[in-house]
Amino acid sequence: MQFNSNQTLTKKPLQGLRGHGAEPHIVIIAAICVFSTQFGVTVIAPLLGEWVIAPKIPHPFLVSGLIISAFALVSLALNIPGGILSDKFGRKPLIVTGLLLYAVAAVLFPFSKSPYDWIFVRALQGAGAGFFFPAVTALLADITSHEERGHALSVYNMGLGVGLAVGPISGGILFHIYGIFMPFFFCAAFVLLSAVLVLLFVHEPKRKFGEKEQEKKEKRKRLSLGERERKALMLCCVVVFFGKGVASMMSGLFSPFAVEDFNVSEEIIGTILSVMFVTFTLLQVGFNRLMKLIGEIVLSIVGLLLCACGLFVLYFATCVPELFIMSVFLGAGIGAILLGTLTLASKAAGEGQEGEVMGIYYTTFYASLGSIPIVCGALSDIFSARLLFLGYAVLLLILILMAVVWRVKSKKGKEY
Predict the structure, then answer these.
(1) pTM score
(2) In the 3-class helix/strand/coil scheme, how is 195-239 assigned residue by residue?
């Protein structure tokens, strides 16, 4: 689906990253900020296997899933309120508040000694995410035109991907050489630097409303989108829930699975995860160009197919090189899904509702991250992680079939 930029669109203050009056430095700072948050989130990924298996904790896959899900469940509760607050008070205060919560969590992590401590600190990170993500993506929607939205979000996603890629391998190496404190020192430093950049160099465009528009906005009790935009947002939420579910499942299950089935070290696990997110990052610009040709929905479907292929490879894997092949498939698939759905959701937002719409998007995003690791972790303890990977791949194929059928019917109905 591609929105025609000439149809019912409000002209934004920034007409493109290279246009007149553009503020590309804000896009760069947003990318730096999301890098710092994702570095802090994924730096623990290679350590989870040793943490939950070495002490012989009962049900290690479930405990690992709970540690990952604590982040998402708190963020889930705060995404829509955070987005609404950013519409009311501005993007900048919410972005800085979220970054500071990430910094506090990074300081506390090295002092955490039990699964309960890890869950609490991850929940604190989730509170930071609940404020940060709706506000920063709404800011990008504020400063870009529809024509350049995809390019700005691809740059933003590159920052996200670099953070996801550098975090796991850095966590494994820094922990192995320097101990538990050094990875989280870097987490805190990156986040605090990002907060300083936002405070000094980000200036929000003024969002003005006429008296009638402001009165309607104040009286509005729920989100008001057109039929076309509601369907687009609904589709984004369904696809990102199951698409992000792949990354969610990998975050919670891959490290203990790799330790148990392949007996690999934290450094190897971190490298495999980093390859996945390097692939995610390197393909963002190419995916943006492809998205202009095939549309956001088709790009998202391609991403689901790539993720299904990666999970099939993981199910049949018998050696470490096959794990690297899997990581390339999953990195490409997740990159396509997130760019397609994020761009489509941002275009569906009406003027003055960007924060709330992105809050809904990230609520679904974190609902996936919060629920899927717990469910898959519990099922992995009952059956096996391999069987879970196979089952999820089949689920994605069913979702692809449903999305294609829905797409064909929508085109016949001339809704898209």
Answers:
(1) 0.72
(2) HHHHHHHCCCCCCCCCHHHHHHHHHCCCCCCCHHHHHHHHHHHHH
